[in-house]
Amino acid sequence: MSGDDTLVIALAKGRILTESLSLLSHAGIEPVEYPQGSRKLILDTALAQVRLVIVRAADVPTYVEYGGADAGVTGKDVLLEYGGQGLYEPLDLGIARCRLMVAGRPGANVAARRARVATKYVNITRRYFAGQGRQVELIKLYGSMELAPLVGLADFIVDLVDTGNTLKANGLAPIEHIVDVSSRLVVNRAAMKTKHRLIKPFLERMRRAVAASHRPAAAAPNTAR
Ligand code: PRT
Ligand code: MG
Fold first, then answer.
1. pTM of the model
2. Residue 167: per-residue pLDDT
3. Domain 7-96+182-213 has what CATH class?
């Protein structure tokens, strides 16, 4: 769908969509219609050469690697789990920050025996424990990982932690920190060359939007006269 004269950007629907749209807007890219109020999967923007596609977070790397989109926004967790060589990752957007952690009942000892670890991040988890020479049994889940230790399905989970409230509400505690996570901009390797004319200014504007969003908000104008 993406001719040489258009830039297609894949955005993850769900919790990072609003912040992604806000950064894009600061970079001068405004959808004509907002995805939150629409069922459309392809959105035109005010720029004739830029279109947005809205996909599952875990599908963003696939769209970008295979050229269904030229660029995309998704979590570092998703990118690490996906692996692959087909993507450039030129920019940390600094949004949706959290940590990927091993968690379990407070005081549980991961090293005690061949523990069972439930997660949707099986690749990251396998690499993490293998890198430490520890043997674990992996159990793949698609969500609600926190339930697994409560019903005896697993000894530990590997999941994202932000405030820690979800773990706490389920009587669990963070045990080991695996990696810090934030959302990243990824770009298709071939498009980086063939669409350089479109991608270079897009990257530059996104860089500036990210830098501006990290600066403290400007002081409110003084209206008292
Ligand atoms: O939910 P769905 O299956 O549709 O897709 P998804 O889970 O891939 O997408 P979505 O919309 O849930 O977005 C997930 C992306 O948001 C992740 O890939 C991360 O990059 C980012 N992100 C940032 C988070 C969190 N913070 C986060 N806290 N994703 C999930 N959580 C969950 C976590 O899994 C746990 O259940 O929030 C809970 C913990 O939060 P605290 O604050 O209680 O610690
Ligand atoms: Mg989710």
1. 0.93
2. 98
3. alpha beta
